[in-house]
Amino acid sequence: MRTPSFGSSSKRSHYSRPYDFPEEFVDSGEYAVGGAMLPIFLNDLRPNHRQDLVEVTLELEDDSIVLCSVTPPATANPPGPGGETAATGFLGRNMSATSKLCRKFSWLRSTSSRASSEAEDPTISARDARKMTAKLQRTRSSAQQALKGLRFISKNTGASDAEELWKKVESRFESLAKDGLLSREDFGECIGMVETKEFAVGIFDALARRRRQKLGKITKEELHDFWLQISEQSFDARLQIFFDMADSNGDGRITREEVQELIMLSASANKLSKLKEQAAEYASLIMEELDPEKFGYIELWQLETLLLQRDTYMNYSRQLSSSSNVAWSQNVSPLKPKNVMRSVGLTIKCVLLENWQRTWIILLWVMTMGGLFAWKLNQYKNREAFQVMGYCLAAAKGAAETLKLNMALILLPVCRNMLTWLRSTRARLLIPFDDNINFHKIIACAIAIGVMVHAGTHLACDFPRLVNSSPEKFNLIASYFNYKKPTYRSLLGGVEGVTGITMVVLMAISFTLATRHFRRNMVRLSAPFNRLTGFNAFWYSHHLLGVVYVLLLVHGTFVYLVNRWYQKTTWMYISVPFLLYVAERSLRTCRSEHYSVKILKVSVLPGDVLSLIMSKPNGFRYKSGQYIFLQCPAISPFEWHPFSITSAPGDDYLSVHIRTVGDWTQELKRVFTESSNSQSVIGRAKFHQLGHIDQRGLPRLLVDGPYGAPAQDYRNYDVLLLVGLGIGATPFISILRDLLNNTRTEEQTDSTPDMSRSEDSLNSFTSSNSTFGGKKKSQRTKSAHFYWVTREPGSFDWFKGVMNEVAEMDLKGQIEMHNYLTSVYEEGDARSTLLTMVQAINHAKHGVDILSGTRVRTHFARPNWREVFTKIASKHPNATVGVFYCGMPVLAKDLKKLSQELTHKTSTRFQFHKEYF
Q1: DSSP letters of 698-716?
Q2: Rounded CA separation 402/396 (Å)
Q3: What are 403-437's pLDDT values in tens digits?
Q4: Distance CA 27, CA 44 (A)
Q5: Distance CA 409, CA 475 (A)
Q6: CA–CA dist 628, 622 (Å, integer)
Q7: How many other C-beta atoms are found inside a 10 Å radius of the C-beta of residue 96?
Q8: pLDDT in tens, 501-558
């Protein structure tokens, strides 16, 4: 039968639709009431005789329906025969209807009736009691908060935004529809769920079931109707759609199997295959939480309760991701310049404070080059050759002087051992060692400019003027050319010309292949020229510069217009840096032979990551955050590749985690994991307990290092903010391990008298808290916030043991760990709502995150970095926070900007450091 259409009077809801029901629903009293089921209930209140009526007064609010009264209508009170009013008879006849209504709204019953009902069926009364409590606890604010956690379309809730979105949907309908009908399979693409079409189909089917229809295609008007429902800004409306998605048979109840199907649908939408396999387990977990009476189903109000109590579950499971309750305004100064001049002054101040180290280095370098150029220019202006070749010669000689300086300086930023040692001295207060490679690149650009000026003026200006000079002018400089006027060809064919042209060609090759597009293999060339791209081409071409330095010495020895040896200054510039670099490379070679390691364990981890655990060479000491170079002679006897150390200084082994993204790393994975029987099958290395591996068949591995990195200075800060993207978390894992070791050592020191410390404890303390000079260094860092952002859920297996160890050992709350999985839709999206609930319940009950398998809860989507910085500033006023970032360059700019901004808006000082992979 069909009931009259029921339209809500809510100012926020304008949806009205008819309902078709099977006959068996008319007199049934077993279904629940609320939301879209209210018309069914009112229809069920109809008695068999049309004259039996009651007046039901309901108050409609934004997101709820309140029963006010149940009375006979005023028109049903005429006097009856015998002077009695018909009301008595009416109420007598209608007690069944009234009782039926009150049974549906069980929380309105009297205490006596509830007590008797509980005595009859305590199980049903327990559920009714929970339902009553949930109704009483529901508030408008909690519904609005839950509304944020159940979003089908987007964050935008304004009418103008909804209208703009509908125009886009309408446009897509025109391109996808055939004969004016949109297929069920194209519904997801049409509403913007391109990557989650399966989930969109679930929404489509739920909305179709509301119409009591099984639709395969819909018209534009029906699409608009569907769109109005999923974009409805009412919590009840969105909740009903979500409930209907799970309620596949439309009986108003969700069973465990239906919950499992919805979990699998959500897991599929978020590409969580592992979670999909465990859907049955998590469905049982939800039923256990929402159906303690074991009825075997849950109703709409129970799902509503779960969503309304979302924050309670989330806060309970956020013990390792806590934040300060200190108000943000307590640590923010109202920094609003009153005029433009103050605003400009503040900007300049921020830039200078952030870049003063770089600024004075660059200024000193530029001034030195300018001084050398001016000195040489002025020197040749006063010589006879100036009358023959003019300013062309003076400019060429000035550029040559800057080239000598830069060819010497460019070697210093790549002397890694020297820089590593300088990092541990007070020189780090004046020199920005983190920018060594950037300075190396800047000098290379200056060399390129100097070469163009020097070679260009020689070839295009002073050589032609010399060749075409008059005999009188040439006689002024004839002694430099053995009194024989040279030709243009002889100038190019001489020692100076040949060495100069050869150097230009070699440097052009080396500089070109070192550019970002060639080095990162972004340039696609056909064979055999494809070998000119990639890291190998960069590595080998850079070694051509060794030949350039030899030619430079020869070129400077046979230079024109200079006869005295002390005036040939090329060797004076480059001899010391060149010897330093040669000593550096010799030290690396000798040390790598001495630091040959044994492979203790090889593991292939999800996400194409190779984990290597090696023996720690005798005398090998390092700091957390540093890196080493690895060479595998079985692959190449010349190639060395850098990798961050993931073990702590106090550990008795070395470990690295290698992402296999390049040709060398892929070959390394192959030689360590290939089966001995077949080279085409990549298997897993055979190993036993740590330190008892059979070395037969494993390739030799050489280690060079350790070398300094920005993160090694973490002890200089009160608080740490460690941000790693993907494999960029590796340098920070060592820091976390070191902090744990230090905490453990301090606890042992506090609990043991000074005169009775064990030798093992003392040795552990010394190895973990000493500098390279052997002096004990106090632990300044008191707190660390680690943010790991990754796209693949399997990445959490890389450092699963470390995260669990932090959770178990960090009893003082020194370390906060925050994992973010960007492949999952952000918290609040309907596609991840159920996963969020499962995650929170499982973490609250078992203390384990469903995605990482650790005690650290995983957040969805990307962090709100401004919120992260403000919370740290609130929690640590007047502290110095070291912000260390390792990952792609894209995020570095945002983090650096926030560090500068928050430093000058709060009493907390943020110092940003970065390294790229």
Answers
A1: PPPEEEEEEE--GGGGGGG
A2: 10
A3: 999 999 999 999 988 988 888 888 888 888 888 88
A4: 6
A5: 39
A6: 10
A7: 11
A8: 999 999 999 999 888 888 877 777 777 777 777 777 888 888 899 999 999 999 988 8
